[in-house]
Design a protein that fits this description.
It contains nine helices and twelve strands. With about 500 residues, it is an alpha+beta fold. A hairpin with a 3-residue loop joins strand 9 and strand 10. Helix 1 packs antiparallel against helix 4 and helix 8 runs antiparallel to helix 9.
């Protein structure tokens, strides 16, 4: 199978379509011109037939008057009895000065039975009258016979024929027929055919050249994009595709590439930071485990000492296990495999249960939790995951609120949303660090003296987002932090 480039396909299809249009146009021009030539010939023959009839009528009127003046019988002036009828018709044609188009017209006169009475000596004599023409003229109508011969293949034999009735009084007394060869029309058509045959190849060549130029113009920006993308590697994700001034699909493609590169750069940076943070977080418990085991192995210990070492090691292992579970949870949400089981829940009772669970930890620091919860608020949520998200937010508030502080939990309802607020009187967050608090392993406490791994708020935001919710945070240093969590009403 031949694989064509985009340039080749543009040239091929553009050339093929325009060539087909030119061919169709040429055929249309040729046949329209042929039809126009035949129509002009018909008009010409019809006009000349009327002229011949007018001349004959004028002649016979003059002959009748002259006969009456000489007391001759009027019957001798009936057209069918005159031997000069054809000669008169020929004289009518010959009286047109400097008109070579009339010299090749032949005149024929037939009886009403279709018998040839007389004909001219011009070329292309007519010696027959078609049944269709006879039937039409006997009804008093003019009739154009179809072409005798083929205009394209037998130009010398092709003629156009008009048949008209000759009327005396109200009676059709004979039939006049004019025939004109179509040699001139064929010559004109042949010249047109030659010009079209010369025009088409040149036009097709110009179309191909135009298609090539058009393809080059279209693909030039793509070449620049390809060149840039080829040089982008994992350590050069800061590079961007150039944006063109035109507002078209190429610019949309460039912007899409740049958006993708920006997302990839952020993902790589986050991945790099997560790896560093995981390494940092694992190093501490692993170092403790290693140190305690090395100490325990230096000499024989009592059962109590071994038990203390194992207990300490188990604590560190539990920390590592908890961190791994959190990372797995985030990974499942990232891959949309969280398996949320949504059902309608009474949000006020749900929040009150979380507050009750946190009250024990708050009392240990003499922290008072104030509540203002609106009743009859229902949302659709996965209880297990939502509990984990909200408990992390409240745990964060208790953790960073000093002894004797206060936490305010409110639940309000709007026409289509429910808003949960958690505000504390804690240490607050530096405004420069506030945009990053939902990042994984990020801690506003740079000393890392607080418990945890910096995954709580990240998990909370991930779960809230999975519920089509929204979490916002505001904070003032040494004055406290406020979280607003919104969910659609059930």
């Amino acid at each position: 199978m031949v694989h064509l480039t985009i340039r080749a396909r543009i040239i091929f299809w553009f050339g093929l379509i325009i060539t087909a249009i030119l061919c169709a146009f040429s055929v249309l021009v040729y046949f329209n011109f042929q039809t126009a030539l035949l129509a002009n010939t018909d008009d010409f023959l019809e006009l000349k037939a009327e002229g011949v009839l007018d001349y004959i009528d004028a002649y016979w009127v003059a002959q009748n008057r002259k006969g009456l003046e000489n007391s001759r019988e009027t019957a001798s002036f009936i057209k069918t009895n005159s031997r000069n009828f054809v000669k008169i018709a020929q004289n009518r044609v010959g009286e047109i000065p400097v008109d070579p188009a009339l010299t090749d017209i032949s005149l024929s006169i037939f009886s009403t039975e279709g018998q040839l009475l007389a004909s001219s000596d011009s070329v292309a004599k007519n010696k027959w009258l078609s049944p269709q023409a006879l039937k039409a003229v006997l009804k008093g109508k003019s009739f154009f016979d179809p072409l005798v011969g083929n205009l394209s293949r037998q130009p010398q034999a092709s003629r156009r024929i008009i048949t008209v009735p000759v009327v005396e009084g109200n009676t059709i007394i004979c039939i006049l027929q004019l025939a004109k060869p179509l040699t001139d029309a064929q010559r004109t058509l042949n010249q047109l055919k030659i010009k079209l045959a010369m025009f088409l190849p040149v036009s097709i060549l110009l179309v191909v050249v135009a298609a090539w130029l058009l393809a080059s113009l279209i693909l030039h920006p793509l070449k620049s994009i390809i060149h840039t993308v080829r040089h982008i590697t994992a350590d050069k994700l800061s590079s961007r595709v150039p944006l063109f001034t035109t507002k078209d699909e190429i610019r949309d493609l460039s912007e899409t590439f740049n958006d993708m590169l920006e997302k990839l750069e952020k993902a790589f940076l986050m991945q790099e930071r997560i790896v560093q943070d995981v390494s940092h977080e694992l190093r501490t418990p692993l170092t403790i485990l290693k140190g305690e085991m090395e100490v325990a192995l230096k000499k024989a210990r009592s059962p109590e000492e071994y038990q203390a070492t194992l207990t300490s090691g188990l604590e560190e292992i539990n920390k590592i296990n908890h961190m791994v579970e959190n990372l797995l949870l985030l990974a499942r949400f990232d891959s949309h495999q969280s398996g949320l089981v949504l059902k309608e829940i009474d949000f006020e009772s749900f929040v009150q249960g979380i507050i009750d669970d946190m009250s024990l930890f708050a009392k240990q620091k003499s922290i008072v939790i104030h509540t203002d919860l609106t009743k009859d608020v229902f949302i659709r949520a996965d209880e297990q995951h939502l509990y984990r998200a909200l408990i992390n937010i409240l745990d964060n508030a208790v953790k960073y609120t000093p002894q004797g502080g206060n936490i305010f939990v409110t639940l309000k309802k709007t026409p289509d949303m429910t808003v949960l607020g958690v505000a504390d009187t804690g240490i607050g967050i530096d405004p420069n660090r506030l945009p990053f608090i939902f990042d994984r392993f990020y801690r506003a406490d740079t000393s890392r003296s607080s418990r945890g791994f910096g995954l709580g708020l990240s998990i909370a935001k991930t779960i809230i987002d999975a519920h089509d919710g929204k979490i916002e945070v505001t904070s003032l240093l040494k004055r406290g932090t406020s979280f607003l969590v919104s969910f659609p009403l059930a």
